[in-house]
Amino acid sequence: MTFHPNVLLAFGMTLLAGLSTGIGSALAFFARRTNAKFLCLSLGFSAGVMIYVSFVEIFVKSKTALTVSLGSFGGYAASTASFFAGLLLIAAIDRIIPPFENPHELRSSDEPPPPDAARPGLYRMGLFSALAIGLHNFPEGLATFVSALKDPLLGIPIMVAIAIHNIPEGIAVSIPVFYSTGSKRKAFLLSFLSGLAEPVGAGIGFLFLMPFLSDALFGVVYGVVAGIMVFISLDELLPTAEKYGEHHLAIYGLTGGMAVMAISLLAFAR
Fold first, then answer.
1. Where are the alpha helices (DSSP H) in 151-196?
2. How many CB atoms lie within 10 A of CB 79?
3. Helices (DSSP H) in 196-237: which residue ranges?
4. Coil, strand or helix: which one is 115?
5. HSE-up of 236 (CA within 13 Å, CB side)?
6. Gap between the Cα atoms of 166 and 17, Å rounded
7. Integer Cα distance of 36 and 150 in angstroms
8. Is residue 83 part of a domain?
9. Taking a C-beta distance cutoff of 8 angstroms, is the pair 149, 6 a contact?
């Protein structure tokens, strides 16, 4: 098996994206108030980057790679099937998570502490949130890793978008754990560990996929990655952005993310 030259870089980018859950935890503890408008714009921006790059770049790369092996119609059909397989994969993961403990529900750091009787339930919520986010982060880690492995310039905006996406997830884990235990250290550690699922997902993907790497396999994985990213954007990022701020702010962030992604792709067009 040939060692791909971008493996270490791809792992490093995936690790940075995953550990941004720690940024969310730190913001929850050390900022006087959560800057809701800034988070709203940032999450909308992240969604814009992910949606634009999925349809304009990643899906196109999937179709191009598969067309070489399967012909024009076969390649298009296979890339389309891969895209919807990615949607179904992340939707299935979402169905596993109990809706009343969804880690993407808004939790603000300036809420008053709950009464003592509610604290055991909050700790359970924090644990479930950490597990749920870890489960989500497996395919997100694979998405970042595969994109950076094949094309580091494409991996950078995806890494940034997923890192922004992980900040409120860090808040979602740390706040209920802190309120239930009174320990910032325990809350930060649990939030930090949930982000490690992304490089773990990348590592598992590396072990399983590297022996079989080919243009056709990259085409399938790219299609799956595009589906995962579109689902995350529509099901998580935009709804969470609107909870943090206003509908129009989320859309402005979305448009800005698409514009920045478009400009960056044009700047590095080959």
1. 152-181, 184-195
2. 26
3. 197-209, 215-232
4. coil
5. 30
6. 8
7. 35
8. yes
9. yes
Are 43 and 240 within 8 A, CB to CB? yes
* Structural domains of the chain, count: 1
Asked if residue 105 belongs to a domain, the reply is yes
Structural domain boundaries, residue 218: 7-267
Judge whether 50 and 158 are in contact, CB under 8 Å.
yes
Residues 146 and 168: their CA atoms lie apart, in Å, by: 24
C-alpha to C-alpha distance for 148 and 22, rounded to whole angstroms: 22
pLDDT for the residue numbered 112: 45
Q: Return left, alpha or beta for 71; rule: phi > 0 is left, psi -120 to 50 is alpha, else beta.
A: left
Q: What is the pLDDT, as a whole number, of residue 263?
A: 85
Residue 180 to residue 221: CA distance in whole angstroms: 41
Q: Is residue 1, in this structure, part of any structural domain at all?
A: no
* Residue 151 within a domain: yes
pLDDT (tens digit per residue) in 118-175? 455 556 666 666 666 677 677 778 778 877 887 788 788 788 878 877 777 777 777 7
Distance (Å, rounded) from C-alpha 60 to C-alpha 79?
A: 9
**Which segments in the chain show pLDDT lower than 50?**
1, 100-118
List C-alpha distances in Å: 212 to 196, 199, 218, 221.
25, 20, 10, 12
Please say whether the beta carbons of 172 and 129 come within 8 A.
yes
